[in-house]
Amino acid sequence: MDLVQKVIELTNQERAKHGLRALQWNEQLFKAAQGHSQNMAHGDFFEHGDFVKRARDEGYPSSFVGENIAAGRPTPEAVMDQWMNSPGHRNNILSSDYTEIGVGHSYLENDPGRLQYKHYWTQVFGKR
User: Fold this and answer.
1) Beta strands in the chain (DSSP E)
2) CATH number of 50's domain
């Protein structure tokens, strides 16, 4: 299983523990998430920016969108642990308002930037 799919699986496991429906994969949200992870990695920055605009630019038809980002965590389990132990990120993962998800991951083995996190993760949540 690839890393992105594993994050989605772990996200839905956390949701199931709290009686919430599984989030469905969305290609447009995936493209927004993957693009942002790649931009953070290659652009040497770590911030949210305008995630609603990114989702819309990929064709997502709603502005009801949320985002989690993380960097430096090498595995899906580690990044999910970080998110679940952060109230804001946890709230996004366990929100009953969201129905769809896209996850992005970018890895730079020899990260040349000043941040040097190597792993850059993005979850984008949405509801049409």
Assistant:
1) 24-25, 65-71, 100-107, 119-126
2) 3.40.33.10
Q: What strands, in cross-sheet order, belong to the sheet with 119-126?
A: 24-25, 100-107, 119-126, 65-71
Q: What pTM did the predictor assign?
A: 0.96
What pLDDT, in 10s, does the model give residues 112-127? Answer: 889 999 999 999 999 9
In angstroms, the CA 55 to CA 31 distance is 8
Per the structure, the complete domain to which residue 36 belongs is given by 3-126
Question: What span, in angstroms and rounded, lies between the C-alpha atoms of 8 and 116?
Answer: 25
From residue 45, alpha-carbon distances to 9, 15, 37, 102, 115 in Å are: 27, 30, 10, 20, 7
Number of domains observed in the structure of the chain: 1
Partners of residue 67 on adjacent β-strands:
124
What is the C-alpha to C-alpha distance for residues 24 and 120, in angstroms, rounded to an integer? 22
